[in-house]
Specification:
Strand order of the largest sheet: 9-8-10-11-7-12
Low-confidence stretches: 11-26, 115-123, 347-353
Order of helices and strands: EEHHEEHHEEHEHEHHHEEHEHEH
Shape: elongated
Mean pLDDT: 79
Length: 353
């Protein structure tokens, strides 16, 4: 029987810098890992094209990985860094007989029982870094929304217009692309409008949908610049698609934003959620008080809140008028409408029986 040499790991834990005189309870760690035997083909296999496999581990575990030949250094929160080191060791053993893929790395993370290692304190400020500056959540709900997007693969942002749910989702998509955590950004919207149909508008399908995705474009151009956004759209790195075009697809290594989700049917929402592939993040935004579906048709967003709320790996963030960051009158207008609908015995919910 041929002897297989196991990769060796050397662990060196160092205390995190302390900013107070309270007793130290958490550790940052630096783990030095040497993978033996040194084999260039296997090392290229474990790192992946352009180090994509290492970046996938960094993103999911919240660690930093530096590689030099067959030596790897993992730094970050102690538990997460140790988990990353163990996964690297297991992956390297597998490279002897198989070619690793993003899907396979995802399964290693799943088998290890590792959740996204972003266990920041609830009071910590959440900052999204984009090329033209930093985007911060305003208030507890926006901060929790950003934290949820970093931690979960599928996220729902539900609330009235002006609460920042779409803008913050775009900021997270831009950061993920800039960090090469995803390969493309997909912007999706149901082709439902109040009082008019997309088919009556001039142009091809992309041109018909473009005007309705203008808030997403505006946010992208603010964060990336007009010319860069145009080039990324031309290269199909940023993809715009009606919701109906998602059928039959599987979106891997993508950041997908479904906007105006209150106008999806129950069947469309189920179809969309089943498109999510490996190493992808989906953010679904909508306002259940502004549904434009035909009378009697149930909103997929309302339905999915009942079906998936509490399911592990899926987050829901609910905004209200206090989270509106537009003109102060907007919050008062929304409150007035809500009070009027309650007096009238319910609102426009697309669910009339």
């Amino acid at each position: 029987m041929r002897h297989v040499q196991r990769p060796s790991l050397e662990f060196h834990a160092i205390p995190a810098p302390q900013l107070s005189v309270q007793p130290q309870t958490d550790l940052a760690a630096v783990y030095d890992i040497r993978l033996e035997p040194a084999d260039n083909a296997r090392l290229a296999n474990i790192c992946g094209p352009f180090d994509q496999h290492l970046k996938q581990l960094e993103r999911r575990l919240g660690v930093d990985i530096v590689s030099r030949g067959n030596s790897f250094q993992v730094s970050g929160p102690s538990d997460a860094a140790r988990a990353a080191g163990e996964i690297l060791r297991r992956m390297y053993m597998e490279t002897e007989s198989e070619t690793l893929t993003a899907e396979r790395v995802h399964l290693y993370l799943h088998d290890a029982g590792v959740a996204d290692a972003l266990d920041n304190d609830v009071d910590d400020e959440v900052v999204v870094k984009v090329r033209r500056g930093h985007v911060r959540g305003r208030g507890a709900n926006q901060s929790q929304y950003l934290r949820n997007i970093f931690r979960h693969d599928i996220n729902f942002g539900v609330g009235p217009a002006g609460t920042g749910k779409t803008y913050l989702a775009v900021a997270c998509a831009v950061e993920a692309y800039e960090k090469e955590s995803v390969r493309r950004v997909v912007l999706v919207r149901p082709a439902v409008e109040a009082g008019e149909r997309l088919g009556f508008l001039p142009g091809d399908m992309a041109q018909k949908v473009d005007p309705y995705l203008r808030p997403l474009y505006d946010a992208l151009q603010e964060m990336l610049g007009f010319e860069r956004v145009a080039k990324l759209i031309e290269r199909n790195v940023i993809e715009v698609a009606p919701l109906a075009y998602m059928r039959g697809r599987t979106l891997n290594e993508s950041f997908i934003i479904l906007d105006e989700a209150q106008n999806t049917s129950v069947e469309q929402m189920k179809m969309f959620l089943s498109r999510i592939g490996f190493s992808s993040t989906a953010v679904i935004t909508g306002d259940i008080t502004q549904i434009d579906l035909p009378r009697g048709q149930r909103s997929g967003l309302r339905h999915v809140i009942d079906v998936l709320r509490g399911v592990e790996g899926i987050s829901f963030t609910f905004f209200d008028s206090k989270d509106v960051v537009r003109h102060p009158l907007v919050a008062r207008i929304l409150d007035a409408y809500e009070a009027h609908e309650e007096r009238e015995g319910g609102g426009r919910d697309g669910q009339r029986e």
